[in-house]
Design a protein that fits this description.
The complex is a heterodimer of chains A (446) and B (595). Chain A has 446 residues and is α+β, with helices and mostly antiparallel strands. Chain A folds into two domains: 230 residues, Glutaredoxin, CATH 3.40.30; 174 residues, Glutaredoxin (3-Layer(aba) Sandwich), CATH 3.40.30.10. Chain A is 35% helix and 18% strand. In chain A, the strands form three sheets. Chain A has an eight-stranded mixed sheet with strand order 9-18-17-12-13-14-10-11, with helices on both faces. The longest helix of chain A is centred in the C-terminal third of the chain and has 20 residues. Chain A is elongated. Chain B folds into three domains: 231 residues, Sandwich (Immunoglobulin-like), CATH 2.60.40; 156 residues, Immunoglobulin-like (Sandwich), CATH 2.60.40; 137 residues, Cupredoxins -  blue copper proteins (Immunoglobulin-like), CATH 2.60.40.420. Helix content of chain B is 5%, strand content 33%. The radius of gyration of chain B is 23 Å and the shape is globular. The N and C termini of chain B lie far apart (68 Å). Classes of the chains: A alpha+beta (446), B mainly beta (595). The interface between A and B is large, with 87 and 91 residues. Strand 8 of chain A pairs antiparallel with strand 33 of chain B, so a sheet runs across the interface. The complex binds copper (II) ion.
Chain lengths: 446, 595
């Protein structure tokens, strides 16, 4: 199926060649308004007015000026992506998808989503067009906010990124696009209000923060209080002291007040790590450990599992009290050498506390079912197989095990509903942090 | 005619090397650099034209009965209500003495730059209510409240700005509802009755713990996502706390003041005791404050201000003064000394006086911190000019050059490589009717009661770090619904504050009560003298870990703790603890949330 927008890609191919000529870079329009004249209101508008204004090309091949055509007068949610980004981008994209559908019935098209490539050298218009088509699966609703995927001159995009405050002092980190992929820059040019939001925090918090900045403010949150105040407009003090203090109860979030103990990990697993050495899980007692089964024939599932493991690794590896174990039955294909490559792609370094363990199919199944409490593999009828070798469907939940070897959570980080996947990925991070930040009572000082 | 040489020769008691800038405004020092994004900003600001602003304290609108300015609306009958503690106060909180104020957060104009530049600056500040309920002009720093221990205060705060606010009075001991929690907002157009009971926490035996009585407090905006830009626009002010112990020190002529006046006056009228709020800003050529909302690393200005005036001068009598320095910047750390390197007596850290003073030639002051200092100008001849200098170089938001230990050194060796002058003192003869204060390093000030290891109930650790361009604690970010720690009411806890974010500096502020440093885990060192009593901001230098102990008394509910580099705090280096009837080692959902 070819849609009309897709056909407009033609001219973009030409303009890209032009953009790559340094002489053609557009100088930002740095005209500044007289702040003094505008009064005390919006000193931050000054910043917005002096924003760089480079020409960018969207997924439809349209040339748009960043400030003049996209930001001025609008609320925007901006992120820096790249099409071959494995870790943060898929999660950020899920966040954006959810925000767009949430906002469809509230703010609608008054907010714009701008995904700008951090790898403009390779993310040409012809590369981002199919990527955009994949992600911006627009619903038929006329109010679904616009989502632009943008590329342009790499130097200008870098300057733009810097101007939006996404820069690192260490040039190595700064040049690594993955460092900038987990940030939403939310702004409202009309009010001059800007903030950065981490798309990996609790999803409803992302939505609430974004709403606050794009201008659809706390009205909802305070609706009950407004009604109460209106009802007591007589001026008499409210009767109940707690009500007077406007104490409100928050709806329960998907979060257990104390992590339940779901079971105890009995027998350890012995197997071969990707390095080729024999390992056992018993020395992991004393650490917070996350186990996950990876199924190399299921690219989507494994990608979600590995992306979550990678994020946990990046967050908690330095504590020295955290470990990851990816499990897979040994097969002629799934050898330690295979997993060396596999781990590299997943972003696991040799020094990371992250094992890729293979063992006999029987042992793996026993460990995952009896030990971790995962479902047994389900034989797949031939017609459901996406791959001829895919004979079974596996329970790909990640399992969180505490320092005492107790199972504290199982998390469905690969779920057909991306929103639930994201909630699960967020939750396992929160719960891991909780286990790590509540060490047993020990004397840390004289 | 007195020449400089004669003065030096005749100046008995004057330290060799004193600088006499008589009749001269010359200053040879290092300019402050400004980030390239502020290209075109104002560079050279004439110095010593401005006179140091010394705020006169507002008087309460009424005592005991609500004032006409409240428009007949009882305390609590405003949109955001009042703390439940207001209605359940025990008899010994003396609620019958409650003082009532009203204040608005609103936009205004200020003269921060010197008169010769002819520029005014739009600000967001605070305005005090007149008796008829209308508000005066917004000022920055805001009105300087004077809170007397044991006298409750209600400040009805109305938000006349287009963005939500939350006012945190930093250094005091307040109910959760009134503490300026990042999510307990004052919405535009609405009001909140902030209740400041000015009560001390109680010891185990039920007596009031007077060692906890705060002296030097300040208030500033604390609204989630907006703190840094609001503070940059001017939303900060100072508050003097005093109790009978301090009044007695004035009466006995130990602390500077007018005996018989400063110690009697319920509003603490003391010309020899003032705040010096140190700030830094970038100015657009139009005179507006230039701020970049998208830089969440920190804000470094190239123009220094004190009490909201750029490079002021201040006339002092040749006697002892008490100065309450406030680090009102978000990212700039300073090391302060007098231009002649002469000695000062440091008498407090943050809100609390030391048991005894500490003789220093210089002191470090980081964002959010207060340093209480006695300077004795009686060593100078009338006509002398002496300068207050920052001798700490800082070229980026990450932090200053050197280590925390170097910055905190009490002595100055040699000529500093970096000198930036902030304030000129013009010394005149002392009023002979008022004796000079007697305070010295042996004077007994406020006793200290250390927290013993045996009292510790729960130990926790918090790692402050940079993560994918965001600021995190234990890998997590601020979530208004999660109490990241739940201490039991009345208990003592021990927290390890660890900074593992490369070269970044993080001043860590914990609300509700003072905390006490125990040990520096990185160096194994015991706290320096100035850090061995009470404080509310613990400075974490790069790659360091400091163990603190703290009590959680009087008030239930959630309170913030966070990095006081406000830009870091906004993205989201901020947690909250909820004081509860029973403690918990793990994070729990927030159970009391005061909209
Ligand atoms: Cu910080």
């Amino acid at each position: 199926m070819v849609n009309a927008r897709w056909l407009r890609l033609g001219p973009a191919l030409l303009t890209l060649c032009l953009l790559r000529q340094p002489g053609v870079t557009m100088a930002a329009d740095r005209a500044r308004i007289g702040v003094q004249e505008t009064g005390a209101l919006l000193m931050r508008r000054e910043f917005a007015e002096s924003m760089p204004d480079p020409v960018l090309i969207n997924q439809h091949g349209e040339r748009l000026r960043f400030f003049t055509d996209l930001v001025k007068g609008h609320a925007v949610v901006i992120n820096f992506f790249y099409t071959d980004c494995q870790n943060s981008c898929p999660l950020t994209n899920v966040t954006i998808r959810n925000l767009r559908s949430d906002f469809t019935t509230t703010v609608g098209r008054s907010v714009r989503f701008l995904s700008i490539t951090a790898k403009a050298q390779t993310d040409t218009p012809e590369v981002i067009a199919p990527y955009a088509r994949q992600h911006a699966l627009d619903s038929a609703h006329p109010d679904v906010p616009d989502w632009q995927f943008l590329t342009g001159n790499p130097d200008e995009i870098r300057a733009l990124r810097w101007h939006l405050g996404m820069r690192e002092m260490d040039p190595v980190i700064d040049n690594d696009p993955s460092q900038h992929a987990a940030t939403l820059v939310v702004g409202n040019h009309a009010t001059g209000r800007w903030a950065k939001i981490n798309p990996l925090i609790r999803p409803s918090l992302v939505r609430e923060k974004t709403q606050r900045i794009i201008g659809w403010t706390s009205a909802q949150r305070y609706a009950d209080i407004r009604a109460e105040v209106a009802a007591s407009a007589s001026g008499a003090p409210l009767p109940n002291p707690v009500r007077t203090a406007r104490e409100v109860s928050l709806p329960a979030e998907p979060r257990d007040p104390t992590l339940p103990v779901l079971g105890i990990l009995q027998a350890p697993l012995a197997g071969v790590e990707r390095s080729g050495s024999q390992v056992s899980t018993s020395p992991l007692r004393g650490k917070v450990t996350v186990y996950g089964r990876i199924y190399t024939l299921c690219p989507h599932g494994s990608q979600a599992v590995l992306a979550t493991m990678k994020r946990l690794n990046d967050t908690f590896a330095e504590t020295g009290e955290f470990h990851l174990v990816a499990l897979s039955p040994a097969s002629p294909r799934e050898t330690p050498e295979f997993f060396q490559t596999f781990a590299n792609i997943a972003g696991a370094d040799r020094e990371d506390p992250w094992w890729f363990v293979t063992a006999g199919r029987q042992q793996i199944n026993h460990f995952t079912q009896i030990g971790l409490g995962l479902e047994p593999p389900r034989p797949l009828p031939a017609e459901e197989r996406l791959h001829p070798l895919e004979e079974e469907e596996h329970d790909l939940r990640l399992v969180l095990v505490d320092q005492q070897g107790r199972i504290r959570g199982r998390y469905e980080v690969f779920h057909p509903d991306p929103f639930l996947s994201q909630e699960a990925a967020w939750q396992i991070g929160a719960d891991t942090a909780e286990l790590l930040s509540t060490p047993p009572l020990t004397t840390t000082s004289p | 005619m007195q020449t400089r040489r004669n003065l030096l020769k005749s100046g008995a008691g004057v330290a060799a090397g004193s600088v006499f800038h008589i009749g001269s405004t010359a200053h040879a020092d290092s300019p402050l650099k400004v980030d390239s994004q502020f290209e075109g900003s104002i560079q050279n600001v004439p110095r010593w034209e401005n006179v140091l602003p010394v705020p006169s304290p507002p008087r309460p609108l009424s005592v005991q009965q609500i004032p006409p300015a409240y428009g007949g609306k009882a305390v609590g009958n405003v949109f955001h209500g009042v703390a439940p503690e207001y209605l359940t106060a025990p008899a010994d909180w003396n609620m019958q003495n409650t003082q009532f104020y009203a204040m608005a957060a609103k936009a205004g104009e200020a003269r921060i730059l010197p008169p010769s530049m002819g520029l005014t600056t739009p600000i967001w500040g605070y305005a005090i209510a007149r008796p008829d309920g209308t508000f005066g002009p917004a000022i920055s720093p805001g009105p300087q409240f004077r809170f007397k221990g044991g006298t409750p205060v209600v400040v009805r705060t109305t938000n006349q700005l287009p963005e939500e606010i939350s006012t945190h009075l930093h250094g005091g001991h307040w109910p959760s509802h009134s503490d300026g929690h990042a999510s307990f907002l004052v919405l535009p157009g609405e009001s909140r009755d902030y209740f400041y009971p000015n009560v001390l926490p109680r010891r185990k035996d039920g007596s009031f713990d007077f060692t906890e009585s705060p002296s030097s407090m300040w208030y500033h905006d604390h609204a989630a996502d907006l703190t840094a830009s609001h503070v940059a626009r001017g939303m900060a002010g100072t508050t003097v706390g005093f109790d009978s112990l301090e009044l007695d020190l004035i009466k006995r002529n130990v602390l500077p003041g007018i005996p018989g006046q400063s110690d009697e006056n319920t509003i603490y009228n003391n010309p020899y005791d003032l705040f010096l709020a140190l700030g830094d800003k970038v100015f657009h050529p139009s005179g507006a404050i230039w701020y970049d909302t998208n830089n969440n690393n920190g804000y470094l200005g190239n123009v220094e201000t004190i009490n909201g005036a750029a490079y002021p001068r201040f006339t002092v009598e040749a006697r002892k003064y008490r100065f309450r320095f406030l680090g009102a910047s978000t990212a700039r750390h300073r090391r302060i000394r007098l231009s002649d390197n002469s000695q000062m007596l440091r008498i407090g850290n943050d809100a609390w006086l030391f048991p005894k003073g500490q003789t220093v030639q210089a002191f470090g002051i980081s964002p959010g911190k207060r340093v209480d200092v006695i300077i004795d100008f009686s060593r100078y001849k009338p006509g002398t000019q002496v300068f207050l200098e920052n001798i700490l170089e800082q070229t980026n938001e990450r932090g200053p050059e050197g280590s925390l230990e170097q910055i905190e050194r009490p002595d100055v060796a040699g000529t500093p490589a970096f000198i930036h002058q902030l304030l000129r003192f013009d010394v005149v003869a002392a009023n002979p009717a008022i004796p000079n204060a007697s305070i010295n390093a042996q004077s007994e000030l406020r006793p200290h009661e250390p927290l013993a290891a045996s009292e510790v109930e729960i130990r926790r650790s918090f790692r402050f770090e940079r993560k994918n361009g965001h600021w995190a604690i234990n890998g997590m970010f601020y979530d208004e619904r999660i109490a990241n720690a739940v201490p039991r009411l009345g208990s003592v806890e021990e927290w390890t504050l660890e900074n593992s974010s490369g070269g970044w500096w993080h001043p860590i502020h914990i609300h509700l009560e003072s905390h006490q440093q125990v040990v520096n885990l990185t160096t194994g060192a015991r706290p320096l003298y100035q850090n061995s009593f009470k404080q509310d901001v613990t400075m974490l230098g790069p790659n360091s870990a400091i163990v603190i102990r703290m009590r959680f008394r009087t008030f239930l509910g959630p309170f913030m703790f966070h990095c006081h580099n406000n830009e870091h705090e906004d993205v989201e280096m901020m947690f909250q603890f909820e004081v509860a009837e029973s403690g918990s080692r793990r994070a729990l959902p927030v159970s009391r949330f005061f909209a």
